[in-house]
């Protein structure tokens, strides 16, 4: 198998130096593997997707894309390769690396060179994607805010937390800030505006439907993977290849209760607690209750907007190389 390493040029110098050192070690320890690796640095927004599409068209699934970036780069490549033969192998090269935690659970303590040296040992399997479709107040489809989600989509408080955490990293990009930005942002936003007015209706895996009983919530997360936000665990039981999305809805609650819930949410201990609703769904619709205000959400860390959001699980939509 040949490998094209798609490297996010926006990553900091320290990360790039680690990757360069890792590639030198690969060349020293396995020259044949290094000869089958091609390095492609992104040159503009959307370039990762263009490289993935070009690779698929040229090599027809005989070359794997190795995503050397964060969750945003993985999201971009996943959308490009959805329902195509070319597999993607994600490696941790970003801030949170949450999707990697789900698909490579046994490799959490690996260094970059460990991932690269084990590329030939990757096990390829199809995983699900979740299609997010966004619509405006008049019901018009908004393509630029619609995409496939490989990890987690959410609406509400955590979207604001995600945006503030990204801003923190952009202002002060250090390993410590990358590891702590999300929790710092979460604590900050707990004392701000947490109420989000929307309704939801879900189709569950058994074919029945369920609807929210109010229109005031803190957040709703739609999960294919287990983690997001630098290790928060909204869906400890999620699986990327079972044909369903794990949904977590948090009621609008007071500050003290919110602090207690966010701690449990951080470690996946929130399920079954008062104010928490969890479901296993195949599709659903989330609708803003404020006609003048669009919902703000994020898909794998990428912001989107819409007055009405529809999601549906697409089983076996992406080939992923996993280390087991």
Summarize the structure.
The chain is of the alpha+beta class and 324 residues long. It has helices at 13-29, 31-35, 47-59, 71-81, 98-103, 112-117, 157-171, 175-190, 255-266; strands at 2-7, 37-41, 63-69, 88-92, 123-135, 147-149, 152-156, 198-204, 209-211, 217-223, 245-251, 276-288, 295-299, 302-306, 308-322. Helix content is 31%, strand content 33%.
Report the CATH C-level class of the largest domain.
Mainly Beta
Spans of at least 5 consecutive residues whose pLDDT stays below 50 are none
SS content category: alpha+beta
Mean model confidence by pLDDT: 89
Question: How many domain units?
Answer: 2
Largest sheet: 11 strands, antiparallel
Q: End-to-end distance, in Å?
A: 18 Å
- Determine the CATH topology of the largest domain: Tumour Suppressor Smad4
Number of helices: 9
Range of strand content: 25-35%
Task: Please provide the count of β strands.
Answer: 15
Instruction: Give the proportion of residues in helices.
Output: 25-40%
Radius of gyration based on Cα positions: 20 Å
Q: Which of globular, elongated, flat, extended, rod-shaped describes the shape?
A: globular
CATH architecture of the largest domain: Sandwich
Helix and strand element order: EHHEHEHEHHEEEHHEEEEHEEEE
């Amino acid at each position: 198998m040949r490998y094209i390493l798609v490297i996010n040029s926006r990553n900091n110098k320290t990360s790039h130096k680690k990757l360069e050192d890792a590639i030198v070690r690969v060349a020293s320890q396995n020259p044949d593997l290094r000869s089958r690796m091609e390095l492609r640095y992104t040159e503009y927004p959307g370039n990762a997707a263009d490289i993935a599409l070009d690779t698929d068209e040229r090599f027809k699934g005989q070359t794997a894309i190795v995503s050397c970036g964060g969750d945003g780069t993985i999201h971009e490549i996943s959308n490009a390769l959805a329902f195509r033969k070319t597999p993607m192998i994600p490696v941790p090269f970003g801030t949170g690396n949450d999707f990697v935690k789900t698909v490579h659970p046994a490799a959490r303590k690996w260094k970059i060179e460990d991932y690269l040296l084990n590329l030939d040992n990757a096990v390829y399997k199809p995983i699900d994607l979740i299609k997010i479709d966004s619509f405006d107040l008049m019901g018009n489809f908004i393509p630029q805010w619609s995409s496939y989600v490989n990890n987690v989509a959410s609406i509400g408080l955590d979207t604001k937390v995600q945006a503030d955490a990204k801003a923190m990293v952009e202002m002060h990009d250090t390993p410590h800030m990358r590891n702590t930005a999300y929790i710092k942002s979460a604590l900050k936003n707990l004392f701000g505006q947490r109420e989000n007015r929307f309704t939801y209706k879900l189709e569950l895996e058994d074919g029945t439907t369920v609807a929210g009983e109010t229109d005031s919530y803190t957040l709703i997360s739609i999960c294919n993977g287990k983690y997001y936000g630098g290790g928060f665990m909204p869906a400890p039981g999620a699986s990327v290849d079972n044909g369903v999305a794990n949904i977590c809805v948090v009621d609008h609650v007071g500050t003290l209760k919110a602090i207690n819930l966010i701690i449990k949410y951080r470690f996946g201990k929130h399920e079954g607690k008062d104010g928490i609703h969890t479901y296993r769904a195949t599709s659903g619709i989330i609708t803003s209750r404020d006609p003048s205000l669009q919902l703000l959400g994020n898909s794998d860390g990428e912001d989107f907007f819409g007055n009405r959001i529809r999601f549906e699980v697409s089983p076996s939509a992406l080939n992923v190389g996993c280390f087991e």
